[in-house]
Design a protein that fits this description.
Shape: globular
CATH architecture of one domain: Distorted Sandwich
Distance between the termini: 38 Å
Helix content: 10-25%
Strand content: 25-35%
Bound molecules: 1-deoxynojirimycin, calcium ion
CATH topology of one domain: Beta-galactosidase, Chain A, domain 5
């Protein structure tokens, strides 16, 4: 790592008269940032000379002290350059290049409050990150009423969006011009989302993905969201300007800051190639290096689970129904299946007392996270799992009672250690307790951080559900392996909008920009009336596409979501899931268009194996796949799992073909993806 000496220390000490303009370009000059401290402080951004962000306001409104911070006196300006190459504990690539130019403006606000504020801009070749820092000063405590940050866009861009909502991010994506966004109407179409706090018709969530008429792809999000609420965006349809809207606490304040303090980074990723949006590491680069010194216990992995049985009505979480899923014998069946097919773990939901009463009551202490149901023999199952070389995966559903979870956390994690478990799935279904808090408020952001830190103390990896959408914190806390924080596979079972074929082509450009998703792919049975004949829901993909998702939806933690009996009918296809890697040496985004298609090739870490995943939306598609990512002079065998000629997500979702083919770097294959379909390929070097 190397921080270069100040490239330039720029003047303007205590200068008051006249505008002060700054301009810096990214390392190769692709991107240009301009900042002006005139009447107000503004910034703008261009990519190859095209406007990305027109001059846009920066600043704050405070409740304590009461002040508006938009007019500033410049104290000093510094620019530096930075470059490093770092190695993530796990990820899509072995090493990551982090290179930017930084502009740091130290300011004094001109209101009577006279607060000092520093705005830091980092310009990369793939975009911009900026944040606010309040240095230590006489005024120690601030209450933020609203952040004034704006993003003025250059036109009525095509936009992939979900409604701004303080509590839920589990929406289906809408694709419209900015001018046609109606978040309230979209949210009203979603009866399957239990807890909503929709902000208003013009509010959208980040990561927000846009495509301009002149061919730019723009993604707006945030990085390193810590000790601050999540940011939503309010759209002004007349000017196409987005304004930050922070998630409030129970009394309407946005954030409580104790100086020195700082906000998360606001991020703008831009390229004229959709593939480059997906390979951007800007958000990770803006996060701090790992806070955990010893990380050898953190292991990417694949698992199965006592889970889908409950969602499709075969079993229940609660004991009292008479069809309790998490009973000792049933769990042994899953452990056998996991051991036989090479899975590392088995997630068990409904193992603990409390599920009779967990949903919709807004009760404080439904679960204690340590008391199993009487038909679940934790000791016996641990011995059985150990003997099979598989681990049980813990489930901590908090039913929104985050405070209660904090009370029990030490005991809950100690129980895991005692029973040889090192992975927990957390959940926050329902309204948050403390009452009046929202899933994405500052209190909850602090809670999620407390949980991953506490988990690390016990060497526990975390996958969180119903938590805030990620912002690259897996660099700092690599035991926070994945989050749900979007519409995942469980919605295949939802009667209303469900999961449409295009959803998985949009997720990588939106939710996944901030970090891995516990999507839980791998469904092999598509009519979901197996156990309750009145169900009409169907999974809207082909089987081959379910395999491809293991490559296209990156996560170091991948579930095979379906039931053992459904996999047993397609063991030849299950082989792909058993084989596919979850930690990668390298990743090539071969082709991509949000809402339409995505093809990705990844090389497994420490193995000469590649995996390819290609998916399409509701339209069929011909994929011309060049294997030029392979090493020259080597021979490989590819196993192609593709849609059969008659496959179609509506009529023949289970029709697939598996073919073995010799391939080299020079091979080109033409492959047909069915409507709602996909293709998965495993490639091994021939010895
Ligand atoms: C919602 C989660 O997303 C799902 O995976 C889980 O099974 C239920 N909550 C119960 O905790
Ligand atoms: Ca969920």
């Amino acid at each position: 790592m190397q921080r270069s000496p100040l490239v330039a220390l720029v003047f303007f000490l205590f200068q008051t008269a006249g505008a002060q303009n700054f301009s810096i370009t990214s390392p190769t000059g692709l991107i240009r940032l301009e900042v002006s401290n005139a009447t107000t402080l503004t910034y703008s951004l261009t990519y190859k000379g095209k406007s990305v962000i027109a001059p846009s306001r920066l600043g704050f409104r405070l409740n304590k002290p009461v002040a508006t911070l938009t007019q500033f006196t410049l104290l000093r300006a510094d620019t530096t350059t930075f470059e490093e190459t770092w190695t993530p504990v796990w990820g899509e690539v072995r090493t990551i290049r982090n290179q930017y130019k930084e502009l740091r403006l130290s300011l004094k606000d001109q209101s009577p409050a006279g607060l000092q504020l520093t705005v830091v801009f980092r310009v990369f070749d793939d975009g911009l990150g900026f944040r606010y820092e309040f240095p230590a000063q006489a005024t120690k405590y601030l209450i933020v009423a609203e952040e004034q940050t704006q993003f003025a866009l250059s036109g009525d861009h095509k936009t992939f969006w979900i409604p701004g909502d303080y509590d839920s991010n589990e929406y289906l994506y809408n694709t419209t011009p900015l001018s046609a966004i109606d978040a309230v109407a979209a949210a009203n179409k979603e009866p399957d989302i239990a807890v909503k706090a929709v902000i208003g018709p013009d509010a959208v969530q980040t990561p927000l993905m846009m495509k301009t008429a002149d061919g730019l792809y723009i993604n707006i999000h945030e990085a390193a969201l810590l000790k601050y609420p999540a940011m939503h965006l309010m759209l002004d349809k007349k000017t196409f300007t987005l304004t930050a809207h922070l998630v409030p606490d129970a009394v309407g304040n946005k954030a409580y800051l104790e100086n020195p303090s700082r906000t998360p980074w606001r991020t703008i990723i831009v390229s004229d190639k959709a593939t480059e949006i997906l390979s951007s590491k800007l958000i990770l680069n803006l996060n701090e290096p790992s806070a955990l010194k010893e990380t050898s216990w953190i292991k990417p992995q694949k698992f199965v689970g006592m889970w889908w049985e409950m969602h499709v009505g075969k079993a229940t979480w609660e004991l009292s129904s008479g069809k309790h899923g998490a009973n000792t014998n049933n769990v042994k069946r899953y452990l056998d299946f996991a051991a036989q097919h090479g899975f590392d773990g088995v997630l068990i939901e409904g193992w603990n007392v409390g599920w009779e009463d967990w949903f919709g009551n807004w009760k404080e202490d439904v679960f204690d996270f340590i008391t199993p149901y009487p038909d679940y023999d934790l000791k016996e199952l641990t011995a059985y799992a150990n003997q099979k070389g598989v681990r049980l995966i813990m489930h901590h559903e908090t039913s929104g009672s985050a405070f209660n979870y904090e009370r029990w956390m030490d005991k809950a994690f100690q129980l895991m250690v005692d029973y040889n478990m090192n992975m927990v799935k957390t959940g926050y279904v329902g309204k948050i307790i403390p009452r009046g808090e929202h899933h994405d408020s500052q209190w909850m952001i602090n809670h999620y951080e407390r949980v991953v830190k506490k988990a690390a103390d016990y060497k526990v990896m975390v996958a969180s559900h119903e938590s805030v959408r990620p912002t690259g914190l897996h660099r700092t806390y690599p035991n926070w392996m994945a989050s749900e924080a979007a519409r995942g596979s469980e919605f295949n079972n939802a009667p209303a909008l469900g999961i449409t074929p295009e959803h998985t082509t949009i997720l990588p450009f939106t939710r996944l920009m901030g970090g891995p998703m516990d999507f839980t792919p791998g469904l092999f049975h598509f009519k979901l009336n197996q156990f309750e004949p009145t169900r009409t829901t169907e999974v809207r993909t082909t089987l081959a596409k379910q395999l491809a998702l293991y490559v296209t939806l990156y996560s170091p933690l991948q579930m095979a979501a379906d039931l053992p009996e459904n996999y047993e009918k397609h063991l030849d296809a299950l082989q792909f899931i058993s084989d596919v890697a979850v930690d990668w040496e390298d990743t090539k985004i071969l082709e991509a268009e949000p809402g339409d298609y995505l093809t990705v090739a990844r090389k497994a870490k420490n193995k000469n194996e590649w995996y390819v995943g290609a998916i399409t939306d509701e339209n069929k598609r011909t994929l011309n796949l060049a294997f030029d990512f392979l090493d020259a002079g080597k021979k490989y065998e590819a196993i192609v799992y593709r849609d059969a000629d008659e496959a179609d997500w509506k009529t023949q979702p289970e029709a697939y073909v598996i073919e073995k083919k010799p391939v080299t770097k020079k091979t080109k294959l033409k492959l047909n993806l069915a409507a709602g379909g996909g293709c998965a390929i495993s490639i091994r070097e021939k010895q």
